Amino acid sequence: MLDFNELRELAADVRIFVDVAEDKAEALRAVIAAYDVVLAIFPSGDGMGLHVVKGKDVLDKIASSRSHAMYSHTAIAVPDLEHAEVLKYLTAPVEQRVAA
After folding, report:
1. pLDDT at 97 over 70
2. Which of 11, 43, 69, 81 has the most CB atoms less than 10 A away?
3. Which residues does 37 contact at the CB level (< 8 Å), separation at least 6?
4. Residue 99: is its pLDDT beyond 60?
5. In angstroms, rounded to a whole number, what is the distance separating the alpha carbons of residues 64 and 58?
6. Distance from C-alpha of 39 to C-alpha of 34, rounded to nearest angstrom
7. How far apart are CA 44 and CA 97, in angstroms?
8. Confidence of residue 70 (pLDDT cuts 50, 70, 90)
9. Distance between CA atoms of 24 and 14, rounded to whole angstroms?
10. Are 58 and 37 in contact (CB under 8 A)?
11. CA dihedral sign of residues 71, 75, 80, 82
12. Residues 52/92/57/34 CA torsion (nearest 10 deg)
């Protein structure tokens, strides 16, 4: 079960990390590379929207096995779903971007 308050706190930590970095794009790439699962969070009509930026395969494996596997995760706040999708595309491995 997701804890939305935890996701907000994680996103705030990521925002601070990126804000203080000299190269903000590289800082964001480093954050995404460091975690197994990265969720983009954004305001939505229902409260908070979620989009998996990285780690869909990890989440699918956990869901299908019904286990409580350990994985690292974080969240990144974005303004909307479109920004979440672009972030996923821009941080995907080159092979995936070319195939898309």
Report:
1. no
2. 11
3. 52, 54, 55, 58, 59, 71, 72, 73, 74
4. no
5. 10
6. 13
7. 27
8. confident
9. 11
10. yes
11. negative
12. -80
Average pLDDT score over residue span 18-29:
95
CB contact at 8 A, 42 and 81: yes
What would the mean pLDDT of 41-57 be, rounded to a whole number?
92
Largest CA-CA distance found in the chain, in angstroms, rounded: 42
Q: What is the DSSP letter of 2?
A: -
What's the mean pLDDT in 32-45?
A: 94
* Structure token pair of residue 43: 């305001």
3 state SS of 52: strand
CA 33 to CA 54: how far, in whole Å? 9
Residue 23 three-state SS: coil
Q: Check if the beta carbon of residue 31 is closer than 8 Å to that of residue 74.
A: yes
Residue 28 sits at φ, ψ, to 5 deg, of -65, -40
d(CA 92, CA 87) in angstroms, rounded, equals 8
Q: What is the length of the chain?
A: 100
Alpha-helix residue ranges (DSSP H) falling in 1-100: 4-20, 24-34, 56-65, 81-91, 94-99
